[in-house]
Amino acid sequence: MSHPSPEALVYRFRKQRGVNLGAWFVLEKWITNAPFRNASPPAQSDLDVARGHDARAILEAHYDTWVTESDWAWISDRGLNTVRIPIGYYHLCGIDVSVISNTDFADFADVFSGVWDRLIQAIETAHHFGLGVLLDLHAAPGKQNNDAHAGTSNAAKFWTDRRNRVHTVHVLRTLVTHLNAHSPRLVNIVGIELLNEPIADVELMNWYSGAIKDLAALDPTLPIYISDSWRTEQYAEYIKSNPHPALLVLDHHLYRCFTSADIKTPASDHARSLMDENAHTPRMFARVAKMLDAAGAGFVVGEWSGALNPGSLTGSLDEIKNYVEAQLRLYEANCSGYFFWTYKKAGPHRDQGWSLRDAVYSGVFPTRVGLVASRNAVGDRERQNRARDTLKNKAFGEHKAYWSKYPGKYQHARFAEGFTLGWDDAYTFFASNPLYRAVSELGFVGAWARTKTTDHGSSFWEFQHGFRQGADAARSHFSEYYCSK
């Protein structure tokens, strides 16, 4: 496996501001009902659609119209730079029919065999618009959770039948092998998510370890995303204790509209609890983000929305807007990425809680996210270097002065080295996509810093501290001199 290109590395390590393309390949009836018109009872899942009349024609008409070129352009124009695409294992049967052998979808190869070419086309089109792609295994053999979006309307048997877990690794290996066959064309693949929202099980960590090892044998550079099963700190500790040569990313999903406690909580309190640094969720986010950053890993929110239960709402549009704003602030401050669920919904009525398009048009979601360059930073290296050296000297002096109060053996020069590299690499990301007004920012800072030196010994912490301070200083400088206010 060849080393990723500089372009591929920018896609993988930049801050991912994204949206889920829900109900495109893995259907969800509440998002769009049309593909279910001939589905077999209970008409809730992909398998129900496949069992109905004219399934292939219905599905392919949906695949070819749900996301089109104008949608890619709209997403890019919002400043978003990545999409998360949910897929089912049966969507890979066009490249290897064995992925559906002895499964619920064994008889439906003809229905789904055309998906793979559409998926490759989607990735290539996303690249044309400067968008990265996170491929998420939303539906695994046997179902990893009890929801219909895991592929069938049957009960979940992922954890009760070991053959499903073994077969899922085969599916993931098939996916990675065939993506690599298209390399380096698909430079915008930012990673593979092993399972979406698996039921928490004592075997999950062991299964993760085996799957990660198997995929690393195929491509040791491929970023791997894993769900935390809403046990965020437990799985952050797991990643910290299981270092991996490639980027490992923990995916947390945040919703506040399902539990009885959520329903009783006013929207204003939901927003306040996410903005108060001393509240539970912000404190947990800060701890996890710091732990994973130091471990050379990452933390993202793979699903979130503006949706609140009617019991939380008074009818004011501002309460949803404030709730969305509170989440964006939390994620920008602590996460290397976040992905709104979902891009759009079908139907005559707007849903500003769940549909990003409706949220933007209703004014509850910003018209743009991220930095927007108003001047070109390329070719202005002299100004940048002067600022870098001035700020480095100041930070270096403060670093030495602080640690002089605590006697010990230090290698302060590593701090200065890290600061310079952090600044320079941050500017490399800023300048990486001049064709797009949305600016790429170094997002997985701790993971990227780890790739910049082979010396991860006792003094690495000083290098890492300097690197982060340099990257942060560069972002502030870039924002001040080159971005719209």
Could you characterize the architecture of this molecule?
It holds the Pfam family Cellulase. GO terms for molecular function: glucan endo-1,6-beta-glucosidase activity. The structure is a single chain. With 485 residues, the chain is α/β, with parallel strands linked by helices. The protein folds into 2 domains: 6-362, TIM Barrel (Alpha-Beta Barrel), CATH 3.20.20; 381-482, no CATH class. Helix content is 46%, strand content 10%. It is built from 18 helices and 8 strands. The protein has helices at 6-13, 46-50, 55-66, 69-77, 109-112, 115-128, 162-181, 204-218, 232-241, 260-264, 267-275, 280-294, 317-334, 356-362, 381-403, 413-430, 445-451, 460-482, and strands at residues 16-20, 82-88, 132-139, 189-193, 224-227, 248-254, 298-304, 337-340. It has an 8-stranded parallel barrel, surrounded by 5 helices. α8 (204-218) links the parallel β4 and β5. α9 (232-241) runs parallel beside α12, α16 runs parallel beside α18 (460-482) and α17 packs across α18. The two termini are 43 Å apart. The model has no long low-confidence stretch (mean pLDDT 96).
Supply database-style keywords:
485 residues, alpha/beta, TIM Barrel, 2 domains, eight-stranded parallel β-barrel, 18 helices, 10% strand, globular, Glycoside hydrolase superfamily, glycosidase, glucan endo-1,6-beta-glucosidase activity
Supply the CATH class of the largest domain.
Alpha Beta
Largest sheet: 8 strands, parallel, barrel
Question: Counting H and I runs of at least 4 residues, what is the number of helices?
Answer: 18
- Give the structural class: alpha/beta
**Order of strands across the widest beta sheet?**
1-2-3-4-5-6-7-8
Distance between the termini: 43 Å
Helix content: 40-55%
Total domains: 2
Tell me the name of the CATH homologous superfamily of the largest domain: Glycosidases
The CATH architecture term of the largest domain is: Alpha-Beta Barrel
Count the E strands. 8
Please tell me how large the radius of gyration is: 23 Å
Topology order in helix (H) and strand (E) letters = HEHHHEHHEHEHEHEHHHEHEHHHHH
Mean pLDDT: 96
Shape: globular
